[in-house]
Specification:
heterodimer; A: mainly alpha; MetI-like fold; 0% strand; globular; B: alpha+beta; five-stranded antiparallel sheet; 10 helices; 20 strands
Chain lengths: 264, 366
Amino acid sequence: MIIGINLFSRGRLLRTFPELAHLNDITEGISQAIHLIVTLNPEVMQIAALSLYISLSATILAALIAIPVGGLIHFNEFYGKRALIVLIQTLYSVPTVVVGLVVYLMISRSGPLGFFGLLFTPEGMILGQTVLIIPIMMGLVISALGGVDRSISDTLIALGATGSQTIFEIIKEARYAILSAVVLGFGRAIAEVGVAMMIGGNIRGHTRVLTTAITLETGMGKFGFSIALGIILLAVALIVVVTLNLITSGLDQDTQQLAGGPRG
Amino acid sequence: MIEIGNLCLRFREREILKDINLRIRQGEIFTLIGPSGSGKTTLIRLIDLLDTPTSGKIFFDGQDTATSEAGRLALRRRMGMVFQKPAVLNTTVEQNVGFGLKFRGEPAAEIKDRVREALDLVGLAEFGSRRAVTLSGGEMQRVAIARAMVTHPEVLLLDEPTANLDPISSELIEDLIVRINRKFGTTIILSTHDMIQGQRLADRIGVIMGGKLAQTGTSDEIFYQPLGRDIARFVGIDAIPGGIISENRDGHALVRVGEICIEVLTSLDAGRRVSLYIRPEEVTLTPAAEITPKSSVRNQIPGRITRMVPSGPFIRATVDCGILITSLITRRSCTELGLVVGSPVTAGIKATAIHVLPEGERSSSQ
């Protein structure tokens, strides 16, 4: 197609079909992305690394909070449990800019957490993204644990498990569903713009991450560069998801056996 | 071994178990039979201390089970439980079987040995490294039994262990249950809605109906002398109501039902209203033409076949003799005798095969 355009005077064709200009941007973006990745462009690498650092930290922090608290909510009966779960599920759809605004107010100089000086720092962004993804992770952890059949917990109790032994085994049993919750949380963190922009401020070399960079470059009309960053974002996500899956399946040998070993 | 006194369980407004009194002896196989939803599972769960009763007591080996959570855990650890729907954890068969020992903090080497022993017992020695979720229903149930037995429990509870299994797997499980009982002297409490299975396995049977323990006794007592119409129906006997004892000489009594007189053995006095219970296997059918006048069978009642329902290798024939009498005959004899719906026949019933219960009073359990 591109070759065709070059053969038949590119200028005239673009005047006739202006939408082809963007098509051109896409192909150009892809080749630019490959170029940027292959040459390990320092600025792009720095942005990607920062994105990964911030979102991964937020994911780990959120998981450390969401899994135990989700477990507490699932394994305990208390007044208002249903209402709490509905509230958590509602927070799945909280706009990133609202979280950005709230966290901004909390950590800005005059806010209650102002003395930490977190505004416009990567750490502030980690805090914002953690707050953003805790509800979705916690909600999915609760439903993951709920997805473990009651007969499993009955079986464990009948086998003489103590309360904490039961909880531990059930969390282990729900490991794949819990992994999905973590992966989804990471996905929301690395893909969001609102918090990164409002808390981080898109400061070049300091708080600029992939999504804010894309916003900026697109605004300046540098579509190719934006597309390149988009591709890199997906590549980063791919690496994280694959790694997480490897870690989880590496924890128990039986899955590997299923993949490679004999089955009856 | 286990003593249950005045046990009740209410869930919201519904009474699921009502005033259960039961004593399970050490080393016996005790079967709870009853229709689905009668409370068998609930009772077994209460015995395993998975739930707590609304009122009443359960004593395990002389100890009151209404104690602290730690005390209940210690007692629960002396029992093993197999659920109707076997739940296996998503890991290997070996690890599934080892859970009970792991929870009790046994060393890994000991767990390994005993898991192998338990898998041997259920005939799944080769399956140790298989993923448990890939097993068939029958294999899973055997894993569940191995998992319960690996801790050498004093009491093994099984809730409808063969309810979802094919006949061959069921037989395997039944053999296994008897073997466990003989080999280890394990007290076994088993629930089933299959009365024939109950009969086959049990030393004693308890019949649960609508949350009440309606009757306990040996299988002969339950199957030939049911205490009441509901139990009779459940064990496959249709009651013949509306009889009156017209005379009774030293236990040889005549009962008038409608137009016919039937000879029975009972200690009830003349004038009592009674129902008759006759096991269909005990009723013989002969074509009306071939009647032999001299027969040891006292009751020879003429009638006509009104219904024939095949049931496996048997045919359940209903004969209208003025009253409806059910007879279970083999398909082969049915063909040989040329019996069809409408055939005139004579139903023969020995006086000893008729169980007589007074009407209008509810019998309590023995």
